[in-house]
Design brief:
By secondary structure, this protein is of the alpha/beta class. The protein contains 15 helices and 12 strands. Helix 6 (about 90-100) packs across helix 12, helix 8 packs across helix 12 and helix 10 crosses helix 11 (about 175-190). The radius of gyration is 22 Å and the shape is globular.
């Protein structure tokens, strides 16, 4: 690879080199490092899993590279990418985003349902089979898929490797929690699932057990499991989680006494708390969502995100209430 690229480089000008899925070439790090040293280059390398930067690259190019993590389209990007008719209401556009997700190559086929599903399943099978099963030499691929489907069914729920192992064992698939933990790490490294650890707000420490997992794209989940209106609350939570990641926050799940805060969004200079709920119209739901945030004894911004429009833009006891669509459309 080095010799082929060397033949095309110019000695007295900047050379731009783009290497896609470069981790498939053995010892690629040495090649990239040599090109960086020997020529005036601007090098871009891309890969679809975490192994790219866990390799020897960090040793060869320490302090000389910038990592840019890519996610599927946000709702705001989705609206720029997909051209709707001018008379389509925003609520209908958002429903389409909830259903089809943000995989650019697939959402343009949404009007032709069979083509869309084939495209999504192609992405799922490629990432699942090549980036997880092949790379990790997984023997029991059906077990790995059962674990992934369990997580898809339980986005927004607190789970653990033991809980997953116990469930699968009860369903006739005997498995240890250590095996489940290994498979969870594989799925995380392939960027199919993302883990949100729990944080004890009063104790000010990360908890070592019982985290939440979110699926990288709702279109993949809805294609594999089917789209269910009854699951709206967890779908909304999944979307907010990735929106916070896009905006540069580290995201954890909050615990204060016996109450839960959906998200703590943190940067080096800021912290925000979020509750995500489908609706606040039920008085008991309203009290519950407010109670979790009111139980936090600090002055950082606290917000409830909901699909309701009637309360959007209001504040109750210092807690903001914002419509989720408005939140997703605001300037980052």
């Amino acid at each position: 690879m080095y010799n082929q690229i060397k033949e095309k480089t110019k000695r007295k000008q900047k050379n731009y080199i783009l290497l896609d899925e470069v981790q498939r070439v053995q010892d690629w790090e040495k090649c990239v490092n040599a090109l960086h040293v020997d020529f005036d280059t601007d090098i871009y390398i891309t890969g679809s899993n975490a192994y790219l930067l866990s390799s020897e690259l960090s040793t060869y190019l320490s302090g000389r590279y910038i990592e840019i993590k890519m996610l599927p389209l946000s709702f705001k990007e989705f609206l720029d990418f997909y051209q709707f008719e001018s008379n389509v209401p925003m609520d209908d556009k958002f429903t389409r985003y909830l259903k089809y997700g943000g995989m650019p190559s697939a959402i343009l086929l949404g009007d032709t349902n069979n083509l869309y599903e084939n495209a999504i399943k192609g992405i799922y099978n490629t990432v699942f089979m090549k980036d997880v099963i092949d790379r990790n030499k997984v023997v029991d691929s059906s077990l790995l898929e059962k674990i992934l489907k369990f997580l898809m069914n339980n986005i927004g729920n607190v789970v653990s490797s033991k809980k997953i192992a116990d469930f699968l064992t009860s369903q006739g698939t005997k498995v240890t929690h250590n095996t489940v933990l290994n498979y969870l790490n594989m799925l995380e490294n392939a960027y199919i699932i993302y883990k949100a650890q729990r944080y004890d707000i009063k104790g000010k420490e990360l908890l070592k057990t019982l985290e939440k997992y979110y699926i990288v794209d709702m279109g993949i989940r809805n294609t594999i499991l089917g789209f269910r209106d009854s699951d709206y609350g967890h779908i909304l939570e999944n979307i907010v989680y990735f929106e916070l990641l896009r905006n540069g926050y580290e995201v954890t799940v909050g615990k204060t006494d016996n109450l839960e805060v959906d998200f703590i969004a943190t940067t080096s200079v800021d912290k925000k708390y979020y509750q995500v709920t489908l609706s606040l119209l039920e008085e008991e739901t309203r009290k519950r969502e407010l109670r979790s945030l009111k139980n936090i004894n600090d002055n950082y911004e606290k917000t409830i995100l909901t699909l309701d429009k009637i309360y959007s833009g209001t504040t109750e006891e210092g807690i903001k209430i914002i419509n989720i669509v408005d939140f997703l459309l605001k300037d980052a």
